[in-house]
């Protein structure tokens, strides 16, 4: 009986955490991406967090927790702000941080499946 109660509590917690429209939390959508992308001192800790090479801020942890699913589902649960921001950040990494871009691809897209879909388009995008 106790296990059923615990299972129900976990189920309720999961439902309470999920957004009603099925998107990721928009809690961090107001982060100033331009400020981060223009300042390597701000950018590199995020990259290192995602690569498991450094500490993570709360927003870094949130991002990292959704990378795999976001790639596999083509950002289906992203808000419009997250979708746009993702494109800007990836374009910046591809065009200005190729060594980190290579490391990120190796970690999250070793087969090149997802990068192949968007990389050439993002190379042309000014970030």
UniProtKB/TrEMBL annotation:
Pfam families found in the cross-reference section: OS-D (PF03392)
SUPFAM superfamilies, A to Z: Chemosensory protein Csp2
Keywords annotated in UniProt: Signal
Domain of life: Eukaryota
Signal sequence extent: 1-18
Stored InterPro entries: A10/PebIII, OS_D_A10/PebIII_sf
Name assigned to this protein: Chemosensory protein
